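Weekend entry, working from home. Most of the wet-lab plans are on hold until the incubator is repaired, so I used the time to fold the two sequences that have been sitting in the queue since the last round of cloning. Logging both here for the record. First:
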Amino acid sequence: MKPDTSTIDIRAMALLIILCASWGLNQVAIKAAVADIPPVLQAGIRSMGATCLMLVWMTIKKKSLLEKDGTLLWGLICGLLFSAEFVLIYWGLEFTNASRSTIFLNTSPFVVALGAHLFIRAEYLSRIQIIGMVLAFAGILVAFHESLNLPDSGMIKGDIMLMGAAVFWGATTVVIKASPLAKVYPGKVLLYQLGVSAVILPVASIFLGEPPVQALTPLVISSLIYQTVWVAFFTYVTWFWLIRTYPVSRLAPFTFLTPLFGVLAGSWLLGETVTIYLLCALAMVGAGIYLVNRR
């Protein structure tokens, strides 16, 4: 019997937790390599490597790249949104700090909820589900409360860039779900985004004045392999399969877990401190996700 995909089932929840934990660890992987490879260039290298992997995979699976399925324009739009998101994230971090960026970037689920309500039939949130999203976002505010100081003019510029990145992130999800991309093989959806970003991100790195690769140490190579093979290839394909299969307005709140997993990974691998605020935030995010996805 075909499973009910109008709500998030246990299988999807388990996959989402794995994805968010992987993306949180990815933040640590970027930090680990940033002294030798600047962040936008890292993202470009990741996209180039994952593009090659996806081409090989689709060849093995005998999936056509040239099939006329009406997705080319939508795929290019998603690729541009995907690229703009990462450029704004890393450019914005030059003006604001990482904690503030986490808060503004995690407004993305609200963009997804609004876009789903406007453009996707039968996807809307009830009042209790909206309360759940607000509660989950409040958890992010609790976890990163120390960054909620009055910003200077430079920080405001960075904050605006991160909010722009959140809009592009959310818009990418909505475009995929609301367009013909929702009906094609998830690998092809990812290939559009990886291929476009593989061209744009290295150019953006040069435009932003990032230095070239300084060294390829075992740590840097391990970081790039993790970012390319696991994050950009396996987890992104899984994410796009989830977008195609389940309501995006119910998937999006799970991404609130990503920065919290990032803090936990930083504590585990980099010796950073875990505070009572983080534990409270995890409880709030978990409660918010429950409210959004309760039957």
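Second, folded right after the first finished:
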Amino acid sequence: MIKTIALVFFMTFLFSCSGGSDSPAPEENKAPEKVETLTYPTNNLLCIDNTLDFQWGASSDPNGDAITYTLEIATKSDFSDVESHTSTTTTKTVTLEKGKAYHWRVQAKDSKDLSSEYSSVYQFYTEGIGVVNHLPFSPELIAPENDSNTSDASIDLKWDASDVDDDALTYDVYFDTVNPPVSMMGDNQSEKEINVSLTVTTTYYWKVVVNDGNGGEAIGPVWSFETN
């Protein structure tokens, strides 16, 4: 009888210690969804004021966590001079300098510090006092991807650029093995691409200067890639 009681006690103890095996696994925390819509200022907009109500679409979180948004504004397309603002709603009022070109994007973050991918990037211009001609927007990289690798003997450098005044744009392309690049490969060209020959196991640097024909100039960031 004593042995029977001891055995029942042991089985009860064993079951209580291992009872957690039936408990559901903790839910994996996932990052919020990417902000898909930038509402205002719209892309390539010439704003009539320099105090702007930035607006974007809401993100959602798979775990139902609270979301905050980081609004990033920069004058450079690579956001190396970024100015950040936090908001718990999908709008933020910011006062900027007059007569300047800006880029903006939004990132969502949940209460556990997981962040979404960045939204797409929009660019706009704040109207200056008595401004007749506006500078072009900084050029945007199309190809090759920055800091990428290639085995090709030649490659097409591609970019994009725009201007709120709809001026006809031309481009000076600098391509070199030193940073910053000083050798000009394209001079005052209208095409948004240029083919360059490559050497193996070399790091190349390049940038584009955008001219609007009215004295306006935008110098792009330095991009780079390597050959195998």
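Plan for Monday: verify the second prediction. The domain at 38-126 is CATH 2.60.40.10 (Immunoglobulin-like).
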